[in-house]
Amino acid sequence: MIVFLDSHISQSNLDELIRFLKSHGIVYEEIQHQESHFLYLSAGISELQTEDIERFPGVDQVTNSVDEHPAVSSLKDSFSIKINNRVISKKHFFLIAGPCTIESEEQLDKIAISLKQSGINFLRGGTFKLRTSPYSFAGLGINGVEILANVATRHKMISITEVTEISQIEYVSSKIDILQVGTRNMLNYPLLQELGKINNPIILKRGMSSSIHEWLLAAEYIVKAGNPNVILCERGIRTFENYTRNTLDISAISAVKNLCNLPIIVDPSHSTGRADMIKSVSWAAIAGGADGLIVETHYDPTEAICDAPQHIDIDLLKQIVKPLPNLLKLWNKQQS
Amino acid sequence: MIVFLDSHISQSNLDELIRFLKSHGIVYEEIQHQESHFLYLSAGISELQTEDIERFPGVDQVTNSVDEHPAVSSLKDSFSIKINNRVISKKHFFLIAGPCTIESEEQLDKIAISLKQSGINFLRGGTFKLRTSPYSFAGLGINGVEILANVATRHKMISITEVTEISQIEYVSSKIDILQVGTRNMLNYPLLQELGKINNPIILKRGMSSSIHEWLLAAEYIVKAGNPNVILCERGIRTFENYTRNTLDISAISAVKNLCNLPIIVDPSHSTGRADMIKSVSWAAIAGGADGLIVETHYDPTEAICDAPQHIDIDLLKQIVKPLPNLLKLWNKQQS
Amino acid sequence: MIVFLDSHISQSNLDELIRFLKSHGIVYEEIQHQESHFLYLSAGISELQTEDIERFPGVDQVTNSVDEHPAVSSLKDSFSIKINNRVISKKHFFLIAGPCTIESEEQLDKIAISLKQSGINFLRGGTFKLRTSPYSFAGLGINGVEILANVATRHKMISITEVTEISQIEYVSSKIDILQVGTRNMLNYPLLQELGKINNPIILKRGMSSSIHEWLLAAEYIVKAGNPNVILCERGIRTFENYTRNTLDISAISAVKNLCNLPIIVDPSHSTGRADMIKSVSWAAIAGGADGLIVETHYDPTEAICDAPQHIDIDLLKQIVKPLPNLLKLWNKQQS
Amino acid sequence: MIVFLDSHISQSNLDELIRFLKSHGIVYEEIQHQESHFLYLSAGISELQTEDIERFPGVDQVTNSVDEHPAVSSLKDSFSIKINNRVISKKHFFLIAGPCTIESEEQLDKIAISLKQSGINFLRGGTFKLRTSPYSFAGLGINGVEILANVATRHKMISITEVTEISQIEYVSSKIDILQVGTRNMLNYPLLQELGKINNPIILKRGMSSSIHEWLLAAEYIVKAGNPNVILCERGIRTFENYTRNTLDISAISAVKNLCNLPIIVDPSHSTGRADMIKSVSWAAIAGGADGLIVETHYDPTEAICDAPQHIDIDLLKQIVKPLPNLLKLWNKQQS
User: Fold this and answer.
1) What are the chain D neighbours of C288 within 8 Å (beta carbons)?
2) I need a surface site. Which of A99, A183, C316, D266 has the fewest CB within 10 A?
3) ipTM over 0.95
4) How many CB atoms lie within 10 A of CB B7?
5) Residue A76: half-sphere exposure toward Cβ, Cα within 13 Å
């Protein structure tokens, strides 16, 4: 049972309601984020009628919903975040580019200049890397955070990087605009809960073998904890096919839009693992209704120290971007 | 080793070459279709040099290729078939629609009229159905073939139906323009070999758990046997995700184009199993470079006796078709 | 709705019942095999009560079951087939061995002698091969059938081979004891239906990406058509793991035994694709309750012209067989 | 390149070697655990010969191995840990049982008594639970740790629980004998690295969609960081089959034994998700060579507040355990 509260419910009215629930042995959780305030009653409700609750002042609506991600579902189609005087919303298409790994300030600066010239305003770069082998380069760590913050500020771009541990959140969220949860951490619920306590938008990548349902439940962990600014990112799932690194689940775009109002972007780089396929799947994603792309880009892909085969160069990125205005008309969007 | 022959090689020159191969104990196969004529040497070649063969008159080129589907690979980018005075080629986009199952001449006629009015020239309808349960309706059989032939002729449409057994091929290929191999039969190599002996174009659906490599090897069975008119159809693969019926492998479009010149179309109906997703994935497929779509369509989807949840009605089909000219410009194609 | 008939129902009583069903527009199918005789009513039954049917003479029981494989489910735990004076039943464990491909009478004879000396009475050998590549050796065909029949007769063994086309069934079933349906044909329903018209036991391999439910529906095609002598064979499913050729689904043994009384055997060779794993998974299968094994065996695995890496030699087979009596006690079975 | 060092190499000899490597710009890592001490050279080695290193005093052997998990591979077949005066080694079979979730001291005590009476010495119980839904019960947390420690001490059992965050490790490792990494955290490399700094044995569950290769790389993270006491646990992988919760990859037992000397146990509860299958797959696992089992057990499975359908009761556990001595003879093991 879900009890939606009036956004202006008084503390004393809320207290009264909660006393009632406790006195009946009802287990509940209070969920509050900028768009919604409700109580989720999970046990002890078998004898309860919706009317028993609706009579309390400050209660808006009571549903017997079995919705498993009520915080996500309660988000309205008004996703809209202001970062650095730029508004991100589902009316805009946000194109994110940059290298897999930040190698140096020079490298990132050179890439940022090219991106900016191509009209791209979102700069990604990894600095805490989870590598399958413990002998692979694991990123510049905290130094990379500073490089990314400096470069993004210099070029008036919005910065994005991945966090992999709770202990990184406080510092990274103070320096970087958007935090990313990678595919290996979609099921790391303690991390998600901590990310629910900050306000930065969170890009939540789909687990490589997670169902769409489990993905929305992971988003629920963040939204329920207080941060509604979740951007879902489809990055391919693991299947038997090995011509590509993963299998891009293009239908996830439509599925997510059926199920909630969170924006969904697509990562053509990790889903295919092949530069020669990025154009085809990027256009497919945009025409399929994606709200953005996140593309691994380097001025010289052969030099990238991580994931070289899936990086594209700036020229190819420009080709991909060219028909964007035309493609976005399909869904009444414009580029951010 | 592959020995490409001059298209005008004389019989006596060919005989001489073959005598040489036999005298050296070499196992070979002769492959000939309208575009190519070559010998595939598969055993006994360890001591052979390409020069030993190149000196024979009528030999064009000898490669030590380990290409596993040489007949498919040798097809030029000139796929072009004339059916009923209409040319199908990779410069055209072919939109195929119609019901999963032919129920009656009235039903099919009503659908055909609507499709034709929407500018669609390809009419599909199933009549030999492979159903997971032996208690499900298995189609009208031979009667359905006649209904489809009549309706397509009446409306000047190109007809498509699936064959499921060798014994059906002779009759169906005489009445119907394009024959289809379903996902359950992609590995039915005796059936594929027989389809290599006719000239009708063959739509070869991908096996639900077949890799792209295995799919091209299945096409090789048909092309090698003499029929180069193969159209590949991506229809979704089986994965752990069950929000959709299958998972559309959108990257297969790009993969196939990297690997050969066969056209590839997409089946949004079976890959998603959900009418509410057809628009999104159809546009994705077109923008991703697909050469066509095959969409289950009915004037009243709720009435369809098979696969009802994935049929769309004519109005939705019209919406999907509307931006087609614009989308096809991305790849320099036009609608057939 | 399923109408179970008395095994001695008179023709006139049956006719009367069928007239009643037809007059009410009910769609039904009559299923009869040595153990069971029933009508499966699939449409037009919405207004029907079980009492309406139970009152007819010769009707045993009427159920509103939604069991999707009633013919399979109606089989009692009395699977028992007599072949060449040897009884096969679920009280026995049947160990099948032999080469992937019959290469010559000498080869097969040599293998058969070794197997017989090891106490093995079932001889398998492939002669109609479905190969992923059209350039691979496709077997000796009809000649192989005769070799297998001769060798098995000479050594008093039970013979097994795969059929791949309807046209092979009549001849092969007259010469060979047990016919096999390979993983590529589990969904070839026309083939299954024809195999339902003979009496030879049928080994039905699981499709490489078929669910247990779909597998039992494939068995239903055979049993429903009149042949209850189906032996299921788990041979590994396709997953993301590629250390092994397929992933042996060991829990399928238990699942099948929960769902029906058909015997289930395990193919450790195709499920792992690696000789070094055959012992471990064979013992696992026996301890897990399998009713038999089918193992690719050759006197010199390196010489096998097909699937060499997964063949084991006779010595390893003897090691595997050694603890068999002890392992079978777990499930009160003995070796056949 | 891997440089194995003499176990008694002097510090000055080691310093000399490292100076040499640094002066040539070689990137290396030093790995040391109780069984092995080596340097892993990962970059800058292209011009290096093994002889250049072998000449240094204190160097045992230099290999040009491309082994991706050298620390795991260097472990000898002498896995042997002493906990509470009990030795665990691969000569013993360790049977771990207990509830999914610790609910109270009474509950756990009651279960522990039954287990101990059945000859079981390992007690598991979860208290930090990662639940797919944020509304599910997430365990008793730190209180559960104390309950488990108390109950295990009282009954002289070895205790096992899962840790889900770095911050839990210090306390839990001081109270509990064996720490477990769940399937959702196999890719949580920061957590694994911290677990490499303690001495408690670590049960490392396979990621639900991780390959065997990736699993051994995860183990490498722990062993490389200094803790060689890793016990692998196969718990089923995610496939298309949904009759079972996951698909137990029985061949992983044999694969792991081919690739390294770490012990491997099997979790029949999570791999099947069904109490009615536990006996079959447990016996299969033991006969297949597993070094142990971890089974969810409750005195009343219907009362379990988490994973009820896959818990078994003590009576069924006793049935499973009965043939254990006999089964273990297959692999020359005895029960711990």
Assistant:
1) 280-281, 283-284, 287
2) C316
3) no
4) 12
5) 7
